[in-house]
Amino acid sequence: MTLATDAVFDLKGLKCPLPVLRSRKKLSAMLSGEDLVVETTDPLAVIDIPHMCREDGHILLETIKTEDGHRFYIRRG
């Protein structure tokens, strides 16, 4: 799946809860309908990022396992 994105947010090397906190802050500054790619190496992000999306009304378009972590495609709700 190839998705157009408005921003790529590199959060590699950060541990829980920083990827969620920083993603939430970044998304709050975006317009509804804009897309954000979040890249992480924290193994807990695969649980935390989808949970944040559900709580905050964002759409998790796709999660991809990468060589060193995960890439999340999120549409701002």
List the helices and strands and how they pair.
Elements: E1 7-11, H1 18-28, E2 35-40, H2 45-56, E3 59-65, E4 70-75
Parallel strand pairs: 1-2
Antiparallel strand pairs: 2-4, 3-4
Helix pairs in contact: 1-2
Write up this protein.
The protein has one domain (7-75): 2-Layer Sandwich (Translation Initiation Factor IF3). It is an alpha+beta fold. It starts with 6 loop residues before the first strand and ends with a strand. Helix content is 30%, strand content 31%. It has a 4-stranded mixed β-sheet with strand order 1-2-4-3, with helices on one face. The protein has helices spanning 18-28, 45-56, and strands spanning 7-11, 35-40, 59-65, 70-75. The longest helix has 12 residues, at 45-56. The chain contains 2 helices and 4 strands. InterPro entries: TusA-like, TusA-like_sf. Belongs to the sulfur carrier protein TusA family. This is Response regulator SirA. It comes from Agrobacterium cavarae. Residues 9-76 form the UPF0033 domain.
